[in-house]
Specification:
By secondary structure, the chain is an alpha+beta fold. The chain is 29% helix and 24% strand.
Length: 119
């Protein structure tokens, strides 16, 4: 089951306090980005935020769950917090500040095949 676009739109709208939040469809679900950093995922209409020390201090007791098989645990954010846009935006802002920028991928250059000169 994939996430409903209305759910994704609502969650991103509620995070507006973090400035520049967007969602991008990835692998049939959604990645949530802020300031160029992936800060959360939305899977099966559930919100999972990357764990950080600042996020843990802000949330207090929080359940950690893997959003999908093979993934590291994320903070599971219940629907109750979705309605508090100010608090949700602050969580995303704190998470963004603590996460490193993504590593740039090395550019690969294509090497043209050698010409043999035989035609």
């Amino acid at each position: 089951m994939s996430s409903n676009q209305n759910t994704v739109d609502f969650i991103v709208e509620q995070m507006a306090g973090a400035d520049g939040v967007s969602a991008r469809k990835m692998f049939g679900e959604y990645g949530v980005f802020c300031a160029g950093k992936m800060v959360a995922v939305i899977v099966d209409d559930n919100l999972f935020v990357k764990p950080t020390a600042a996020g843990r201090a802000f949330l207090g007791e929080v359940e950690e769950v893997s959003p999908f098989e093979g993934a590291k645990p994320y903070f599971f954010i219940s629907g109750e917090l979705w309605d508090d846009g100010e608090r949700l935006g602050e969580l995303i802002r704190l998470t963004t500040m603590e996460l490193p920028l993504p590593k740039k991928k090395a550019k690969t250059t294509r090497v043209k095949p050698a010409q043999t000169g035989k035609d």
